[in-house]
Amino acid sequence: MNFFKRTLRTAVLGLGLAMPLLAAAQSRPTASPERVGLSTERLQMLTDVLKADVAAGKIPGAVLLVARQGKVAWFEPVGKLDATAGTPMPRDGIFRIYSMSKPITSVAAMMLVEDGRLKLDDPISAYLPEYASMTVGIEKLGADGKPVLETVPARRPITVQDLMRHTSGLTYGFFGPGLVKQAYNAAGLGANDPTNAEFSQRLAKLPLAYQPGTTWDYSQSTDILGRVIEVVSGQSLYQFEKARLFDPLGMKDTTYYVPEPARQSRIAEPLPTDRSFGVGADLNDPRIVRKLESGGGGLVSTAGDYARFLQMLLNGGSLDGKRYLGPRTIALMTADHSNAGAGITPGPLYLPGPGYGFGLGFAVRRNDGEAPYPSAGGEYNWGGAGGTYMWVDPKNEMFVVLMLQSPKYRTHYRSLTRDMIYAAVIK
Prior knowledge:
This protein has 427 residues and is α+β, with helices and mostly antiparallel strands. The chain folds into two domains: 24-107 and 236-422, Beta-lactamase; 119-229, no CATH class. Helices cover 33% and strands 18% of the residues. β5 (135-141) and β6 (147-153) form a beta hairpin. The relative contact order is 0.16.
C-alpha cells in the first residue's frame, strides 16, 4: 500500500512538473532529463550560472532549451525579457536571431532544389542578371604608399552552392579590415528601406572580396540566396517560408517583423550598453516593419519555434508525419562543402573554427577531436550576432537552443553552454 502511494505521488508530481513544460514546448514530447540520459543536477548548474550572470548585470536574461531522443528535457527561462522595464523572461520570449536565419533560408532553398526548380550548380545570374559580370577587388599600394583598390574580372560565375557555403566572394562590411569591406560600408546598402530586389542590385555593383569558389568568407550570401528564392518561387521570401516552413511546422512567432502589439510585449531586449555587434551595426527594432526581408539575418523567433525546426532536421527532414526535406538532402546540407579537397581556403576570419568545415547553411564538425568542444563528429551549428545559438548533435540524438540578446558575450556563452551541457550527458 505504501509503495502504491509513493508511486502515485511520484506520478502526480511528475505530471505537474511536465504540464507547463509541455505547453511551452508547443506540444513537443517531454521527458525528465534522466529519462533521456541527462543529469538534472548538471543542467541546473548551467541554469544557475545564467541566473548568477543576470544578477551580476552581465546579461538581461535567457531561455535555454535542451532536447534529446525526440523529447524536450530542459526548457528554462531566466532573468528579464527587458531589464529596463523589469519584465520577467517568458519561455516564449521573441528574440532577434540574426544569422540563425541562415539555416532556415538554406532549408527553404533546398526545398526548391527538391522541387526541381533550382540546382546547386546553377549560376545565380540565371535568376539575378545583375551578377552576370562580377569583378574582384585587389588591394595594391598606390604611389603614396597607401593601399588602393583595383578590380579584375571574376574567373567564374557565383553559383547557388557558393551562396550556401559562403564561397561566393561576397563579404560583410561591418567586421574585419579591407578596402572591399570599406566599400560595403560606404555604399549604404540598407539606406532608404530597399526591397530584397533593390538590395541585391546595389550589392552586385560592388567588387567581390575573393574569386568565387576559392575562399570561405562570411558574407551577405544568404541574403542573396533569399532573393533567388523570391525569383524562383514568385513569392516574397517571407511568403514562401511561411507557406512551406513556418505554418506547417507551427513556428507561429518566426517572422521578419513584429507589428502586432500583443507580440511586441514579448520581444527580448539587450542591456542598453550592449547593442552593437560591428561597425555601424546595432540591434534593430523589429517593431518597425521594413521592406527588406534579410534571409541572412532578419528573422525573429522563440526557443520553442526554433526547436521544432531543429527537431525536423534531426529527424532527417520530417516532423509530426509531414516531410519537409528528404534525409539525403539533410545529409548533403550537413556534409563539409568547404574543405581543401573542394579547393576552398579558410578566410582570415574563419568563424566555424578549428575542427569545423561548412556545409549548406551550417558549420559542420569534421571529427571528434581538434575543436575545443565536447560534441561529436557530425554535429552542426550556427549562432546569431545578437547572442542566440544552436547546435544539433545527431550521434548523441540531441539539440540545444540558447536564446539570449547580448552581442558582447555571444561567444562566451556558446562555449560555456556546450561545456556544461555535455557535462550533463551521463549516458
